[in-house]
Structure formats: structure tokens, C-alpha cells
Design brief:
Elements: E1 4-7, H1 12-22, E2 25-27, H2 38-43, E3 46-49, H3 57-60, E4 68-71, H4 81-86, E5 90-92, H5 99-114, H6 117-125, E6 145-149, H7 153-163, E7 168-172, E8 184-186, H8 189-195, E9 198-201, H9 215-221, E10 226-229, H10 238-247, E11 252-255, H11 266-269, E12 274-276, H12 285-303
Parallel strand pairs: 1-2, 1-3, 3-4, 4-5, 6-7, 6-9, 7-8, 9-10, 10-11, 11-12
Helix pairs in contact: 1-12, 5-7, 8-9
Bound molecules: 2-keto-D-gluconic acid.
2-keto-D-gluconic acid binds near residues 50, 51, 72 and 279.
Keywords: NAD, Oxidoreductase
Family: Belongs to the D-isomer specific 2-hydroxyacid dehydrogenase family.
Protein name: 2-hydroxyacid dehydrogenase
Length: about 325
Amino acid sequence: MSQVIAIGPYSDTDAAALARDFDARRLPDLAAIATLPEDQRRDVVAVAFMGHDPFGGAVMDLLPGLKAITNFGVGYDAIDVAAATARGIRVTNTPNVLNDDVADLAVAMWIAQARDFEPAMQNARSGDWGRGVRLPLARKASGRRVGILGMGRIGREIADRLAAFKTEIHYQSRSRKDTPAGWTYHADPVELARAVDDLIVAVVGGPETEGFVSAGVIGALGPDGVIVNIARGSVIDEEALIAALQSGAIRGAALDVFRGEPQVDPRLLAAPNLLALPHIGSATVETRAAMGQLQRANLRAILDGRAPETPVN
Ligand code: 8YV
């Protein structure tokens, strides 16, 4: 049995590299670990993990020799890091290499929502345009006041891009950051939402940000507001968002991430003012290649007894 298990929807290139460099055995998901015979589970020292299924202590205990979980992704909220640390298991992630892609997507979603891309594309493609069907006018994106929830590495890349759109930039994060003059810090997310037109969610997922975009935050944004989320579905109170989209309490939302994805609440998908994407923030050839390389560099380092490049714990 190989020492490395690879779990998740890897590209052919990454799957081949994991097999070639680590003799990794592919498993479809975490649940498949329990189906391996005990002597095979005992041999496993590392899991190259991709995906968002909860990776908790009970799964770790099925692999008594486990030394490393190398996550393909910057967000590791699916992994119980405290449980891993308690068991002496190293966790690594793939930060930075995806910042550009995720920030590009956030800005694209923000513009697409302001300019009503979805109905406009439908109008052109369906032939409605040619039949004289006129669309209501959209909203101008440049110059809006935008609030960024979470001014980490990705939040900062988003803000830097938005600055070129003559926006007024506001942000909320755990602490005030060193930013260009004129960016306004808010300690409280409701206060942030009250000060801006649109809100872009770029905080980490996990218990500390669960439901952070609450009914109060959504309500404070107001009927002209748009919420963009490229972080994690868990950050938004989806019930409150559905109610706000249905009632017109906000103008719309653009979401790349959802609670329980890839299953999405049908009430969200039915909302006409929702732009939905299937979690493609880092999904480019270039970035996924860089993420794969970093994951494998971390794996190699840990197996060789060296410090990994991007440790989490
Ligand atoms: C995922 C992501 O890694 O990096 C993250 O945190 O959410 C994505 O880039 C990707 O969807 C593979 O699971």
C-alpha cells in the first residue's frame, strides 16, 4: 500500500504527478478511507487532500501513522487543525499562488452584477435583442462605495483592483491594516455595510466567521446593495440572504461559494437577482498548476523530514 493517499478531483496532470512522485493511491473521497483494510490504513503517512468535506479527528484516527495533511487550497476550514495538531499531524495549504485569480473573479462578479450580465447575455443569446426586447438599465460599477470584509492577502488584491475603478474603499478585519490613504477601516461588519453600496466577502471560513454576514449586515447594505462572496458559503446567513433577495431588501448577490456546495439551496438558484458560479475562484490552468506544485513541495518536504513551505500548524 502506498504511503500517500490522494483525495479529491485532481486534474490529470496533478493526479499523474502525485502518482509519479509519491506513488500516491487515489481515493474518491474521505469516506473511502474507512473501506480500506486496517493493514493498508496503517501504512499511510500523508493525505494529499483536495475538497471541502469535513476532515475531522475520527477520520485521522483511521490512519494511525498519519504525519501530514497537505491541502490543495488556501482555505483549510474543512480540516480540524486542532485535532491534527493534537495528533502530531502537520497541515499545510497553498496560499498566495491563487490570490490573483480569486481577486480577478471577485471584481468580475462585482461588475457582472452591477451591469446585469446574466439577463443581458440571455437577451443577446436568445434572440430577444433581435426581437426588440429591451432590458431595464443596469447600474454603474465605477465610483461605487465598496466594503471588503476581510483584508487579508486576497482582500487586499481585490481592494487594489477596485481602486482602479475609482471606488471608495472601506474594509473590516480583525485589525486595522496599513493601506493607501483614504481607505476606511470599520471595526464592525454592520457599520461597514452601512457605509458602503456593495459588500465583497473575503474572510476565512470556519467557526469564527460562521454567519458573519448576518441579517443585520444584509439589512444595513440596503436595497441598492450587492453582496459578492468568493470566500466560503458558511460566512453568509443564507436564510437571511434568500429572504433579502426575495423581498428586494438588497439588489442582488454574486456567489462563487455556497453552504453545502455543490448542492445549492434551490430558493437561491431561483432568485432572479443571483449570479451563481460553481466555486471557480482558483480554477485556471496556471493557478491550479501552481497550487499542485506547492502541495507536492509541502508533501516532499514533510516526507523528507524538512519544514514545509507553507505550514498551517
Ligand atoms: C479550492 C478554495 O482549493 O483555495 C481555496 O480555499 O476554495 C479553492 O481554491 C478548490 O476549489 C479545490 O478544492
